[in-house]
Amino acid sequence: MDTYEIKEANNNKTFKDFINFPYLLYKTNPYWIPPIKSDEKKYWTQHPALKFSDAKKWVVYWKGRPIGRIAAIINRSYNEKTGKKYGRIAGLEIYNDQKAFELLMNTATKWLKEKGMQKVHGPLGFTNLDNQGMLIEGFEEIPSIASVYHLPYYKTLMKKYGFEKEHDWVEFHLKLTDEPVNKGERGAKLIKRRFGLEVFSPKNKNELKNYAETAFDILNQAFAHLPYVIELSDELKNYYKNKYFNFLDPKYTFFVKDGDKIVGFLITIPNLSHAMKKANGKIFPFGWYHLMKAFKKPSGVDTLLTGVIPEYDSKGVAVLLFDALHRFMKNNNIEDIETTGVFEDNHNVISNWKNYEHRQHKRRRSWIKEL
């Protein structure tokens, strides 16, 4: 008797199983970082991108027990921008069970094909500011909270199903030594003298929030040519402002201005991975304590977002931003930097990491397949 069953996550029971399954799957895993459950629920039910996206979610059961989940997304704005009929897989989590995987993937791809999609790619979120990619290298590394974690057999399941590589992101661990500090300081002095640019950090959270819309406007310009990117609407800007800017510490954020014009920014946070693991998906009653402790005594810094207006790319704005970060780290006895993912062919950024004591320790992938 076939004891596998797949259900759409469209009621309280199945949606709860969809949200809770990763916490079950990774319960004893020392590397997975649990997201905040309340944020996960809002993501799948209240994301502004749902206004221009179609999305469905499923859970696969074995003998009544959830053993995997998947979501499928059609981002109509992205398809209109690119002129392609692409669907996305998202939220994929599964035990090492080929049949369960095929049930999930067959269901998701059938729905996408019925909707007129010609290819499926992912894992991808609603926008490029959501989780992207599947971990394929670095399974014994703690991810930053801006990255992802998956189990080693996922890539085998994807390949067996016929998925191929679309794009890879690589991530680095950097150690701040005298070489990048001195080089950055010399470069920053030259750039300030030549172009009259200034770097600063907001004085408080309210001032930082006031720069949020400007930062997203810069991202719209800087990221427009990249894969998976759509222009952030006012509603999306407000969503990500409330999601991210409420917990940022102004001391960890840096902006460059040309006169009164903001031309670039760098947003970092203290490494919160271990604190999020202790929080175990809940801010209250004790999660908040662990997060605040990580802010006060950081073990390292994670880069979250960097954006520069394209016309200023050649004026060394990134040098000013990282020189400011270096000075902040030196003043606070911080040595370690965890980078977010960068496309593996972005040689301009990757070449900068070679100034540090560095190692490329993680890789994640977006896969693609014909429907």
The number of helical segments is 13
Instruction: Give the overall shape, derived from the CA principal axes.
Output: globular
Distance between the termini: 30 Å
| Mean of all residue-level pLDDT scores | 94
In CATH terms, what is the fold-level topology of the largest domain? Answer: Aminopeptidase
- Which range does the strand content fall in? 25-35%
Number of domains: 2
Order of helices and strands: EHHEEHEHEEHEHEHHHEEHHEHEEHE
Give the helix/strand class. alpha+beta
By CATH, the superfamily of the largest domain comes out as: Gcn5-related N-acetyltransferase (GNAT)
Largest β sheet strand count, sense and barrel closure: 14 strands, mixed
Number of strands: 14
Low confidence ranges: none
CATH class of the largest domain: Alpha Beta
Radius of gyration: 21 Å
CATH second-level architecture of the largest domain: 3-Layer(aba) Sandwich
Fraction of residues in H or I helices: 25-40%
What labels would you give this structure?
371 residues, alpha+beta, Aminopeptidase
Please outline what is shown here.
The chain is an alpha+beta fold and 371 residues long.
What does this entry look like structurally?
- The chain has 371 residues and is an alpha+beta fold.
- It folds into 2 domains: 4-170, Gcn5-related N-acetyltransferase (GNAT) (Aminopeptidase); 177-334, Aminopeptidase (3-Layer(aba) Sandwich).
- Helices cover 39% and strands 27% of the residues.
- Strands 1, 2, 3, 4, 5, 6, 7, 8, 9, 10, 11, 12, 13 and 14 form a 14-stranded mixed β-sheet that branches.
- Strand 4 (86-94), helix 4 (98-114) and strand 5 form a beta-alpha-beta unit.
- The mean pLDDT is 94.
